[in-house]
Every structure is written in C-alpha cells, then in structure tokens.
Amino acid sequence: MLQSDIDFFDCKSDCFVVERKLPHWIQAGAICFVTWRAADSLPAKVLNELDRQIAEALQANNLDATGNWKQELRRRDSIQRGRIQWRLFAIRDRFLDAGHGACLLALQNCSKIVLDGLCKFDEDRYFLTDVVVMPNHVHFMAAFRDEEEFLKQCTDWKRFMAREINRSVGRSGDFWQVDQFDHLIRSPDQFDHYRRYIANNPSQAKLPADQFRHYQKQLDIANT
Question: What is the predicted pLDDT for the residue at 217?
C-alpha cells in the first residue's frame, strides 16, 4: 500500500461499523488514529473514576451513559461525532498518561517489539504514518486497503506483540486490553493535529527519552 492509496474519511462513502465496548468506524483507505492500552493500565479504582468522567462527558452531549449511547452517537453528524470521540479519548488518555500498571512498554526491549511489529509490513499490508509507544499504551496512525484487513491486522499485531513481550519479560497471560480506541481522520488539518498529539504525548506525560519510542514518516499528505 502506497501513499497515493490513502485518503481521509468521507461521510458519503461506505463505512463499516463494528460494535464492541466502543464503536469502531472503519473505511477502506482512510487514515485512522488508533490507541491500544495494556490490560493493567487502568486498575479498578482508576477505572471507576474514568467511567464517572466519561458519563459526565456523555451527559454534557445529551447521551445517556446507562443507555445505548453508541447507537445514538452513530446518528450524529461526522463533525459532532468526531468532537465527542475526541473528548472521550482525551479523558482516557489523561488517565493512561498517569502511568498505572506495570508499564512494561517503558522497557526498551518491549517497546522495540511494538515499534518493529508495527513497521514490519508498512507500505505492503498498510500505510503507517506515526507511532508513539508509551509505557502502558500505544498511539499510531495507519490506512488499510479494506475493513477486513484493518481488523485482521490489529488482531495479528496484538497477538504477536503480546507473545513476544511476555517471552521477553518471563510472564504469561493477556497483555493488551481487548478493545481499542480508533478514529477516522477527516481532513489534512485534523491529520496534522493528531500527528502533533502523537509527537507531543511523551512530553505531556513528562517522560524521559528512554521511556518511549517515536516514529514519524515524512510525507506530503495534502497531495494524497
């Protein structure tokens, strides 16, 4: 897959929605911002406070956190839906940046497994533009040829990385949280916003340089 194959989310084109704990919008060829978190990154006490703040944010946008707010969100226009998604993401990411859990991805051998894994089939199975590997979570942006390839690749990535990280540190069991946050990028300006967010996330979390890995591809996205 080449730079010329990628695009931004088009609300008039077909879009595939997967309903899990979070709703996932997928569109062939569109750049997508994705966040994975480690399974232990939000302990129960922290998760309770996160859920409370999420419920308040939903209520502020006339969405019922105790009801089927995901379906209601799907009916909002793409700009409003994107704004709400960003607000929910920002709440979650602030809790992740606090550094809960074992933070195994702060170890250089573990973060290398993740970054190498994400880059391995770049410009073949997908087009990867940006990555940051934080101590307990990962942000990246990539475009995929179709919806099935997106879902399959994320599953393959997480399975492989979990196995290799567990082997590296001598542990077993689940490494990643099953669900993920993802957001389809709508414009070059939004793409620049997310690129800056990925690049600046380590400094916002006050991380030293040896506790994260960062990758950014040089490209002229405005001409894609």
Answer: 94
Indicate the residue type of 110.
Answer: C
DSSP labels, 39-78: TTSS-HHHHHHHHHHHHHHHHHTT--TTTTHHHHHHTS-H
Taking residue 84's Cβ as centre, other Cβ atoms within 10 Å add up to 18
Whether the per-residue pLDDT at 145 is higher than 70: the answer is: yes
**Long-range CB pairs of 145-153, under 8 A, 24+ apart, other chains included:** 145/1, 145/5, 145/28, 145/29, 146/28, 147/16, 147/26, 147/27, 147/28, 149/125, 150/26, 150/32, 150/126, 151/18, 151/26, 153/121, 153/125, 153/126
Q: What pLDDT is attached to residue 74? A: 81
114 DSSP β-pair partners:
none
Pairing relationship of beta strands 126-133 and 213-216 according to DSSP bridges: antiparallel
> Which pLDDT value is given to residue 22?
43
Query: What span, in angstroms and rounded, lies between the C-alpha atoms of 213 and 195?
Result: 14
Output the CA angle 118-217-165, nearest 5 degrees: 20
* pLDDT reported for residue 223: 45
What pLDDT does 125 receive? Answer: 93
Residue 16, classed as helix, strand or coil, is strand
Look up the pTM and report it: 0.85
